[in-house]
Amino acid sequence: MKHCLAVFLLALGLAFCLPSQSSAADRESVVEKVVRRGTLRVGFSSFVPWAMQDKDGKYIGFEIDVAERLAADLGVKLQLVPTNWDGIIPALLSGKFDVIIGSMSVTPQRLLSVNFSVPYDHAYVDVTLNREKASAINRLEDLNAEGVTIAVRTGTTAAAAAARLFPRASLRMFNDEAPAVEEVLSGRAHAFMSSAPLPAMETLKHGDTLVQKFETGLAMQPVAFAVVKGDFDTLNVFDNWIRLVEEEGWLQERRDYWFKSDAWQSRLN
Q1: Which of 65, 119, 131, 139 is close enough to 211 for a disulfide, judged by CB 3.0 to 4.6 Å?
Q2: How far, in Å, CA of 151 to CA of 181, rounded?
Q3: Predicted structure pTM score
């Protein structure tokens, strides 16, 4: 079944034969290179529970499942390339990996640099508060005030949403979610903003210190694969693969496991 799917996907993307080896090298699509190399290189950054390390140091998460299934269906090996979020698009453009599968939402700014596949998920921003420090914050609008500090991860949709919605607050930027969460736990910041479901998960874990007082669902955006511009054969393969596994029900099953259950928590420690 998977062999047939791989053949079908490649037939969608590999539309014609090129006349010479030199011109083929110049015009070869990323998906052709992946098949010839026998390895799919995927760039990503850690976002719980999208991608994270388990107790044995192995990467697990929704994104990892997606990358593993894609590589298997293409009939190639998977090479994961962990990359700092603020440098992940430049790394793609410099050829360090073939595709970003890293909970990257589609934004107008990113569209100027890369092409996106059809969405394989959607993300929204959530907020958790330091229970004591933010005792007077009872509405979302209360975050937009001088003296309020919001911890976010640099370069994320949450950081952009916080800057747009709460211009009077002070934003404290971090290269990862863990120190941003610690900033709120320690009382040095009032709130932590990030893609769901991380704020809710941290609130459950630290219920004596953190609290969620309002429903947010801010900045709902599609999440898609990112590839270099102009490679329409590769986009065609990825788009149709996403449609196939969505129709199959596999993507929803993986979403339910990672975002609507805590069954995977035991794999972390």
Answers
A1: 131
A2: 7
A3: 0.76
